[in-house]
Design brief:
Blueprint lengths: L3 H20 L3 H37 L6 H25 L11 E7 L3 H21 L3 E9 L5 E9 L3 H5 L4 E7 L10 E11 L13
Helix pairs in contact: 1-2, 2-3
Length: about 220
């Protein structure tokens, strides 16, 4: 369980930053405060959502002792408890130490693994999923390189994603993704397991051009 005093410290710091910014700080100071405020905002939003869920659980538990509300509480409690592990995990992720590359744009590579043509189609599904996710967050999604199969699958694709907090949100997507399903090309209804490799890398920082003296 995440200590409540730690969560409260974060919320109080966020509120302090918000108050200081509203007071009207100088140019350099407002920029510094704004960066920290932007970093804490998604954390505080997650804390508020988590606390709301904990409060709803406590309220539903109390309702069990009320004969008039018991039936409603018995219906709500399983739903609330089912949401709790995911909400706690989401909060834990936002509390992880920040990576220096979290604010950078990212490069994404998707390559099919085992599964033949079905894996290539799964790679195309993953590509569309990340494109929709980027669109939902207001990010730009530019395909740099793409190699398709005759059936519309993907042999390989490389894309550049740019926006606020791109690498921070996507870095845990790196790894092998698997799916089990009956392919449209399968006439006997057999379930196929397909795999794709997804690599998420932060965009490299720009570096000054280095001249090498051949002499």
């Amino acid at each position: 369980m995440i200590p409540n005093d730690r969560l409260e410290q974060i919320v109080q710091r966020f509120q302090f930053l918000e108050a200081k910014m509203n007071e009207g700080a100088s140019g350099d100071q407002i920029a510094k405060l704004g960066r920290e405020y932007s970093e804490l905002r998604p954390v505080v939003e997650q804390i508020v959502a988590f606390r709301q869920l904990v409060g709803d659980l406590a309220d539903a538990q109390d309702m069990l002792s009320d004969p008039d509300m018991r039936v409603l509480a018995e219906e709500e409690l399983p739903l609330l408890k089912a949401r709790f592990p995911k909400a706690e995990r989401a909060l834990q992720l936002t509390l992880l130490p920040k990576d220096a590359a979290d604010a950078r744009p990212a490069m994404i590579e998707i390559r099919p693994g085992t599964g033949g043509e079905e894996a290539a189609l799964f790679a195309a599904d993953l590509l569309r999923m990340y494109q929709r996710y980027a669109e939902a967050h207001g990010w730009s999604f530019d395909i740099i390189e793409e190699n398709q199969t005759e059936l519309g699958g993907i042999k390989e694709v490389v894309a550049h994603i740019k926006g606020e907090g791109v690498f921070a949100r996507l870095k845990y997507e790196s790894g092998v993704h698997r799916v089990q399903r009956v392919p449209e090309t399968e006439s006997q209804g057999r379930i196929h397991t397909s795999a794709c490799t997804v690599a998420i890398m932060p965009e490299a920082d720009e570096v000054d051009q280095i001249e090498i003296n051949a002499g």
